[in-house]
Amino acid sequence: MKKYLKEILFLLISICGAFFISGLIILFSGEHPSEVFSIFIEGIFGSTEGILYTLFFSTPLIFTGLSVAFALKGGLFNIGAEGQLYIGSMAAAFVGFTLVNFPPVVLIPLTILVSIIGGGLWGSIAGFLKAKFGSHEVINTIMLNFIAISLVGYLSSGPFKNPGDQIPQTPLISESARIPEIHTIFPAFPETVPLNISFFIAIFSAIFAYVLLKYTKLGYEIRSVGFNPDASRLSGISLIKINLLTMFISGAFAGMVSINEVLGYRYRFLNNFSPGYGYFGIAVALLGKNHPLGVIASAIFFGAISRGGLLVDIHSDRISRDVIFVIQGIIILFVISRELMSVIAKRKKYTAL
Amino acid sequence: MKKLVEMLNISKSFGDVRANDNVNLDLCEGEIHGIVGGNGAGKSTLMKILFGLLKPDSGKIKINGEEKRFNSTQDAINEKIGMVHQDFVLVDTLSALDNIILGREPVKFGFIKREDVKDEVIRLIKKYGLNFNPDDMVNKLTLGEQQRIELIKILMQDAKIIILDEPTASLTVSEVDALFNILKKLKDSKKSILFISHKLPEVIEISDRISIMRQGKIYTTINKNEANVEKLTELMTGEELKLEDSFYLFSGKEPVFKLENVKLKKNREVYLNISLEVKEGEILGVVGIEGNGQKELEGILSGFIKPDGGKIFFKGQCKRNISPEWLKESKISIIPSRKIEDGLVEDFTVYENCILGRIDEKKFSKFGLLQKKIIVKEAEKLIDEFNIEPYNPYIRVKYLSGGNQQKVILARELSKNPEFLIACNPTRGVDIKSTFFIRNRLLKLKEKGAGILLITSDIDEAFSITSRIAVLYRGRITGVFNTRETDEREIGFMMLGGEKRKAG
Q1: Residues of chain A contacting residue B325, judged by C-beta atoms under 8 Å apart
Q2: Is the predicted pLDDT of residue A277 greater than 90, yes or no?
């Protein structure tokens, strides 16, 4: 219990530190820090709308955070969530705008399945290369990001482009492929918020990942390989199989970003729709201590910062978008510093002995 | 004699464990003081306290009668204390000299002035008979020579009190002799040495006094002339230890496992070519000086290295190479020499480690879900049977002592009911009680009719439990002897490349 109190205390201190530094930056930009901060905080907690927006922003981050955290449990550093989510989204959009005559009961599960398989297969390419040739997954996933982004860029501006549009995007997906927004289930919630049931799918995915890792044979083998590939190999576990499966599942989580972005919000594939969800996933996983349930909390924190930043952007003329990004970055840096410090402390310990 | 170091009423706890409990220890000038005790008896903790790596919960340290407080190793170094750790780390790709000056390079105008230091190093090498070339690359040096580099580092700091933690654990017989000569010279020049070891004959040979630690306390301190191996063993463990001495009796005729000209090549040159045969119900020991092919042989047997030729037979079935999957299917168990790296998943709990490699057994998972209750029960059974301490299946393996870690591996491998077992240095770094336990277990398995291939660098081990001994020299088996018909001198002679005199 004492340990948790210490953690929380440290979190509070680092948030205060972040506000102090960003306060200085706001002063330089010619605004009142207290005013900006109250907009920031109110934007997040001040209304039902704010809270729901926070959850909406956090949904894709839960998926990508899970993607990174899951791979790390298996000893693999997946930088490729960005590419995997694009492939998954394009696959989902394709099914969504092609099989227009299917009923929702079939089409929704099918599109979700396709996005899982798309992201998963894209991820397992890196897993296969790692297991078969030993080439490092960090390099491979980065390269696969470039390939994926170019590929979907081509598809959305070429063969799958919505005829007549000025921007690279696919046609809208069928009505029966769309998942409901939250206010259709809870009519009390404001209609303006695009939060949809993919948030619950994200929570469910996190629980799924947790159970898979902790209670199943496959999870045991994944963690075993993650901790010690040599001992796992000697015990007869197939590294090829486990690396492949780890990266498939990791990629699948990334691909599921499409449930929020394609099936629940835009209803189409828009080129470059991701502001870097895949890369944010690394920070989300780090802050969530690679624990599937920690990832949820961490993603909501990141979602809140996005929401607050957005409101400051709308309300203030003097603070430019870039300054908001800087502030967001400072907050993230301060909060993550705890993790960085423990990494450094560990390293120090080794050199001391 | 003058007391140089006094440690008074030192206590240190980790959580509920009292690692040191009111320990009193002194060290005189020009004395070699041996410290023995089982794994987890508190030797290392005590030494880390003296070297400033740990702070005691209570108690005092006096140097030359003056009370001192060590907040860091630097404080200890300032009091002329130096320590050679068991697992020292040198930079492989630098020369010995560069390793010595690493971290405190003598710099002038941004350039390193090596020459000044080199003279000093050469002087020390000559004075104490350290006998290595400071310009050699570290990766060309033997472990013994590397250890001497560590010693020089300490001597350069003008240390008067030298702590050696398990210095002989990975040395060959001749290197141990060389080390002891150095220690005697150090002693003659009034240096004081604390010598920690599991190997009792060595401790008795080199020490003036011997302290026995047991469960965090110094049980007693005796003089060299009162000590013998039996007495020390009894003092350390509080009981008499014995090997089951049935090992010569039975050896089946049928070979279980056979290697026929299994080769490894480098640049078209064959540097390993091994033929050997393990019969059912026998322990075949493969002995040799480290670096004569043990690592490669283990690699081939565990499936990490593919041989470049030759045949491998198991119960008549012929193979070109081995894979871990095949080992698992054939019920061949292996105790790897690197227990932490290859044998255990350190961050897993004891119960999770107990099923490593057995996870496919039907009772442990249902529809892909782990049957935790059954697994924990199985682990508890093994903990019980193998006296693994503490009795706790939920503790992470990395928190166990070395001997208990080794027991976890042994317990798991034997629980697979193997027909053939490959054991690589199964008792290295393990305390005497666990050593006896492990050897007895191997004998028991052999009695059940399994064949065991024991690759060991410990001749005593080979003589105490094997039926036959094969000598490995420069990648070849140069002779096979019936254990009963040979002696340590003959085997030692063969290990150094001697010719075989009689048929085995």
Answers
A1: 236, 238
A2: yes
Q: Where is pLDDT greater, at A190 or B335?
A: B335
Choosing from B186, B220, B237, the residue where a domain stops is B237
Q: Which helix (H) or strand (E) holds B147?
A: helix B143-156
- What are the residue boundaries of the structural domains of chain A, listed by start? 45-320
The highest-confidence range among A252-261, A298-307, B218-227, by mean pLDDT, is A252-261
Question: Which candidate in B304, B345, B371 is best for mutational testing of the A interface (most A CBs within 10 A)?
Answer: B345
Cis peptide before A33 (omega within 30 of 0): no
Q: Is residue B189 part of a domain?
A: yes
For this complex, say whether ipTM is above 0.90.
no
Subunit contact A224:B345, Cβ cutoff 8 A: yes
Options 3.40.50, 3.30.70, 2.160.20, 1.10.3470; CATH for A45-320 is 1.10.3470
Which of B165, B295, B356 is the best residue to mutate to test the A interface, defined by the most A CB atoms within 10 Å of its own CB? B356
Residues B404 and B448 reside in one and the same domain: no
Chain B contact for A227 (CB, 8 A cutoff): yes
Q: Are B370 and A238 inside 8 Å of each other by CB?
A: no
pLDDT 10s digits, A27-73: 988 888 888 889 988 989 888 999 999 999 999 999 999 999 999 99
In this prediction, residue A346 carries a pLDDT of 59
Residues B85, B206, single domain; the answer is: yes
- How far is A201 from A185, CA to CA, in rounded Å? 15
Report CB contact under 8 Å: B342, A230: yes
Q: Evaluate whether residue B336 is within a structural domain.
A: no
Q: In this structure, what token pair is assigned to residue B200?
A: 């009792």
Asked if residue B293 and residue B225 are part of one domain, the reply reads no
Please give the residue of chain B at the shortest CA–CA distance from A231: B342
**Which residues are CB-neighbours of A255 under 8 A, at least 6 positions away?**
A84, A85, A87, A88, A89, A91, A92, A115, A116, A117, A118, A119, A120, A122
| pLDDT tens-digit map of B251-282 | 667 889 999 999 999 888 888 999 999 998 89
- Rounded distance, CA B130 to CA B179, Å? 8
Identify the bridge partners of residue A270 per DSSP, sorted by sequence position.
Answer: A169
B439/B393 same-domain check: no
A228 and B325 within 8 Å at the Cβ level: the answer is no
Same domain, B86 and B216: yes
**How close B304 gets to chain A, by Cα (Å)?**
8
**pLDDT top residue among B458 and B285:** B285
Write the residue in B325, B356, B364 that is nearest to A224 by C-beta.
Answer: B356
Is the pLDDT confidence value at B115 over 50? yes
Is there a single domain that holds both residue B253 and residue B370? no
CB contact A353 to B (< 8 Å): yes
CB contact under 8 A, A234 and B341: no
Assign residue B9 the CATH number of its domain.
Answer: 3.40.50.300
Domain hosting B280: range is 241-331+418-504
Does B170 share its domain with B35? yes
* Cβ-Cβ contacts under 8 Å for B337 (sequence gap 6 or more): B294, B295, B298, B424, B425, B428, B455
With CB atoms and an 8 Å threshold, state whether B344 touches A231: yes
Count Cβ neighbours within 10 Å for each residue of A250-269 and write b for 16 or more, e otherwise.
bbbbbbbbbbbbbbbbbbbb
Per the structure, the count of domains in chain B is 3
Q: Is A337 on the interface with B (CB under 8 A)?
A: no
Beta-carbon separation of B304 and A234 below 8 A: yes
What's the pTM? 0.78
* Pairing between β-strand B283-287 and β-strand B451-456 as defined by DSSP bridges: parallel
